[in-house]
Amino acid sequence: MNSRMIVTHGIEIEDLMALPIPRKSNMQDLKLESYQFVANEENIAIEECDKKLVKEYLKVCSSLSDKIKQLIETKDKKMNNISDDLVNKYLNDMKDNQILLKILNQVFKGCIDENQNIDTNKVITDLQNNPEYDLSLDYINEVSKNEHLIRSLVDIVSECFIPKKEIKVLELNLTNGLMAKEVDTQLASSHIYPIEVNYTIAVKSISTLNDNYKNQTFKLVEWNPQNSVFPNEITSSNLILLKDSHHLWEIDMTSQLQDIFDVISDKGFLISVFRYQLTEPELALNQMNGKKALKNADLEKRIVDFIKAAQSVGFNVIGKKLDSIGSMALLFRKLFSEPKVPKSENIVEIASNPEKWFETLKQKITEHKDKESNDETLWLIANDSSKNGIIGLINCLRLEPGGECLRCVFDYDNLIKGSVKFTEKPYSDILSNDLPINVLKNGKVGTYRHFTLNKEYDKIESNDYFLNVGHNRDLASLQWYDSKGLVTNKDDYDFMNTKTNKIACNIYSSGMNFRDVMFATGRIASGPQMLFTDCCIGFEFAGRRADTGERVCGFDMSRCYATSIDANEDFISKVPDNWSMDEAVSVLSTYSTVWYGLIERAHMQNGESILIHSGAGGVGQAAISICQFYECDIYVTIGTEDKKKFLMNTYNIPENRIFSSRNTQFKYKIKEITKGKGV
């Protein structure tokens, strides 16, 4: 770095300064996802952070319903205060999808209104008949946005239709909480190659739908279950989504499922969504309504009856997901033929050494491709290592001619001893489900799936952190980073390649300089410093040594907007007893710049004249203080009248020594005052 030379075999380049290439800031199409194992059957199919938010929302609704219940029982309208800060926070900023909270809030307002005696039953009934208070649009019923509940099942469907170019989808949904937008996006984006999604939605009334659905490519049909158990316009589908609602409870379940079975193509799928339990505030609302309402036992019985009826018409249960809040999704598959136990020659073990299986696999796929009709499947088995790449292998091979015959079992836990026995569980279930990819992990059958990372995926609680800018290089990208994640070196060296001694310091104050502002707003490049650190802001601090508690201030390469730092011992010094931490940190870069420029380089002497530009800035004020100590004849430039008054009042600079920096007239005025000598 100091020599500015690059030397390699046969080449020497002198006077070269290397700068890093700036990253592209366009992140518009960037999609961040996690890749994780997902069992086909889950009881907690929800992201932990989403579950926490839903629980908080339900807690607020429960608190408000308890307050309403108390008001109804006591009939004391003076109990109108809500002391819970969390409840008030939600009520002051209610979102469009917080329907349950809106209903409870309206009931609460009616209960505390001294001018009227409300009929709670009538108020709730009127609200629920109002489209604005449709509970199917409530936060807890937005199941299609829960990727662990719906996308994990949709991905199974998508995976099974390789290498088809089109998939036909029918959504049977008599509520306003449609799933079409999310499911359509998931099918189109999660597929290995571009696929056309032909999406039809059967609804109660097209006129009541949101305009977003009318203006998109969805085909809309009206369906009245009182006239027919299934829409008459539908002839065939690869996937049917059925969202259960009270509109469907009166029709014959077996007849409906038989029609669905007949419409679904061979090896097609049915995804049904249910409520398996009501939440506490929902039960409280039903109780206030005074009408006969569903109980959790009723919901559970309907799901059991539905599964039995689906199996009776010929569906296989493939997956079962519960979100632990109140919603459930079931995946069924239509399979006509009985599963055939594969012959030993159609089972290939995929080991880490490809020489053992590559030619065999190649020959088997070629044979299958050349046969005009072949209903036999080729099973790939991997159980030698948790790092086996069989999933990537089968995803690629299934795109090749003849690859549709491939299925795989990846024994992540290495439990398979000897040959796979497809007549015993869980392998008999894997065989009957006929899914292309099956992973055995932690005693469960599933596979690996992509899920969109939540907005706070990289947020953790920390008591040791530092400030840095993001890739966009603007003030909006400023955020705190966990210092515990930094890699510490056993030995540290400075720019001169000299070994340094690091001292742990707890930071109390950090200094903000002009360069930090220019860099954080993207107005200047990072320079060669970026070769050594990914943080280029924060150069001065004041605090205490962690070992002795001594008050110190100093410099570092970066990361001084932080709670702590390992500082170079040569770059820190003791803070004078009569200085505060803030005063100490304000001296560092400003007075160091003045000392180096005026004393070290310019060798300033007593009584000299000097022109200080930007005199109201940090360096400018430091220069004024030093020059006044040296009894210099001081001239300054400033940008505004306020700064001019500040310098006159604070440093007693005469008005005729202060000039505007907005033009060049100051040089003529200085020449005039100094009688042509200048400074």
From TrEMBL:
SUPFAM superfamilies: GroES-like, NAD(P)-binding Rossmann-fold domains. The keyword Protease does not apply. Residues 473-679 form the Enoyl reductase (ER) domain. One of its GO terms (molecular function) is oxidoreductase activity. Keywords: Transferase. Pfam families: FAS_pseudo-KR (PF21149). The keyword Transferase applies. This is Enoyl reductase (ER) domain-containing protein. It comes from Medioppia subpectinata.
